[in-house]
Amino acid sequence: MLEKANDWSDTFYDKWKPIAMGFVNGAEKCLQCGKCTGQCPAAAVNPSYNPRKIIYDLVNGNIKRVLSSVELWQCFFCSGCFATCPVDINFPFFVFMLRLGAMSQGFGWEDVKQLEKYAEKDYLQDGITVSPEERNPYVIEERGDIADIRQKAGMPRQREVSDEAIAEINMISDLSGMTNFMKKIGGVELYDCSKCTPKIEEKCKSKELPKKVGNVKTHYRFYNYGVPIGGADNA
Amino acid sequence: MHKLDKLSGIREEIVADIPIPEEIFYFQSCVASNKYPGIESCTLDVLNKLGVKPFVSEDQTCCGGFVTFANVAAPTASMPAVARNISLAEEEGLDICAVCNGCWTFLNEFGHFMNGNDEVKESVNMMLNMMGREYKGESNIFHIGAMLYKLKDRIAENVERPLEGLKFATHYGCHYLGGGKYGAIDDAQHPSFIQELVEIMGGENVDYTASGECCGTGFTQVINDKEKSLDHSQMKLESVRDEADPDFVIVLCPYCLSQLDRMQQQLDYRRDVKLDIPIIHITQLAGLALGLPKERLAFDAHIGGQDRFKKALNKIGIDY
Ligand code: SF4
Ligand code: SF4
């Protein structure tokens, strides 16, 4: 997607707009007022995250800084910025498209890989992205099987999606290249909580991202927008 | 109590445009079906009680919003999936009612995008035609919150279990008011329609500072950057506990419900933060007031706030 655009070029945004399918428009109208950043929940917990600066860099062609940043992956997709922006810049869509751009440059695949499972094992297999399975033993113990609760409420033990519907979304996935994409990065192993040991528990509390992402070569991302301190004390 | 008439930023013109149909396509939500089935049973019962017949289709899949914004599916992959789901309602000639903020914005945004972009619509239809479907762009997508607000007179007539003596706080959720800046029925900064519904049902509203904040799930942040997601939820939930101390927090979105509910246990486990706050969906609130039996409310699927659930439900005569 970005191959043709020259990094650090002030024409990047103009070249990019049409490829981004009209989802991103009007960044040049940005007033740099900072209202977006002021109300941003991601900025509340990650002080170096700053949507205003990302827009500034995009419009001025400072694109390398955006795409190689950790910050690009910290947006909550809450649309709060769009709601308060005086010139209606729909920033979460920018983030969404910029992340695709960053991936084409080899950034951020670790994050996407963690999420791929939900598409492969749940969305495409059952037609439902959130599965009834629980990984948290506390939930299983306290609440029991969700199928029992559904039955008690007078509903079928499981929500059914027809085979036809599942075949259709798989067809869409094949035709649109989504299946291919998922094959490229492969699935990701999640911890099985029923086999938890103190060591795994410790790991779980400070879970690291997987290092290898299928056969895609990845690059380290940088805190390009300042000091990455944050957390509960700053929230 | 709130002086609602002064605060209200409700957009009457949008509310006026919402039809009251005899039947509506109920768009099932993944989280509601598989984590909080009470949302599903309450939606069906509440709509039926208010004279709108819900239509359920097994051909409907997940809206695809999650895999899209997780960057696993490019817009080229999710656009036809959205069109496919909407076309199911069009085949029946029905409008869609979504119970999830995510489903609502996602279907709306991508639907509008296709409607305003003939080229995209054509190529999407090329794919759908292969499976014998067609996207026309005729069905409207309404949020259940807006539907309930539209039906507030019928709710008032049908209250069987007044919620007297109970305190309610609200969490509207980002993707209805923020994402739907122009499509939602209320103001993004000072929403009040849930409060109005609570008043109709006889409950008392309480407010807290962080009421407009995101629940903290951050879409994928809860998976990719859990600590930051927890930070945000902690800030929000502590504000609820310390300032409002409500019997229930009303949410519009099952995903917010899941975050605010489940993170209470996580915060206790990881950070020793004690919270006991029942979080319920707006359809469960309506279910309470319209007198649904406790099995249909299915509060036993909720993780956090179980002690408070018991106390609060006992107050209005439900043996929980
Ligand atoms: S709120 Fe809008 S105009 Fe203001 S800095 Fe943010 S994007 Fe720019
Ligand atoms: S959508 Fe992203 S940038 Fe905008 S306010 Fe939410 S977290 Fe911040």
Strand line-up of the largest beta sheet of chain B: 2-1-3-4
Percent strand of chain A: under 5%
Looking at the structure, what is the overall shape of chain A? globular
Query: Which structural class matches the secondary elements of chain A?
Result: mainly alpha
CATH fold-level topology of the largest domain in chain B? Rossmann fold
Overall CATH architecture of the largest domain in chain B: 3-Layer(aba) Sandwich
What is the average of the pLDDT values of chain A? 78
**What series of H and E elements makes up the topology of chain A?**
HHHHHHHHHHHHH
List the ions, cofactors and other small molecules found in this model.
iron/sulfur cluster
Radius of gyration of chain B: 19 Å
The total strand number of chain A stands at 0
Q: Detail the poorly predicted runs of chain B.
A: none
Tally of DSSP β-strands of chain B: 8
Output the CATH class name of the largest domain in chain B. Answer: Alpha Beta
CATH superfamily of the largest domain in chain A: Alpha-helical ferredoxin
Calculate the mean pLDDT score of chain B and round it: 89
Percent strand of chain B equals 5-15%
CATH top level assignment of the largest domain in chain A: Mainly Alpha
Whole-number total of structural domains of chain B: 2
Please, could you describe this protein's structure?
The complex is a heterodimer of chains A (about 240) and B (about 325). Chain A has 13 helices and no strands. By secondary structure, chain A is an all-alpha fold. Chain A has two domains: about 120 residues, Orthogonal Bundle (Fumarate Reductase Iron-sulfur Protein, Chain B, domain 2), CATH 1.10.1060.10; about 110 residues, no CATH class. The N terminus of chain A is likely disordered. The model of chain B has no long low-confidence stretch (mean pLDDT about 90). Chain B has about 325 residues and is an alpha/beta fold. In chain B, helix 4 crosses helix 16 and helix 14 crosses helix 15. Chain B folds into two domains: about 130 residues, Up-down Bundle (Glutathione S-transferase Yfyf (Class Pi), Chain A, domain 2); about 160 residues, Rossmann fold (3-Layer(aba) Sandwich). In chain B, strand 7, helix 15 and strand 8 form a beta-alpha-beta unit. In chain B, the strands form two sheets. Chain B has a four-stranded parallel β-sheet, with helices on both faces. Chain B is built from 18 helices and eight strands. Helix content of chain B is about 50%, strand content about 10%. Chains A and B meet through helix 3, helix 6, helix 7, helix 8 and helix 9 of A and helix 3, helix 4, helix 5, helix 6 and helix 11 of B. The site of one iron/sulfur cluster (SF4) has 16 residues of chain A, from helix 2 and helix 4.
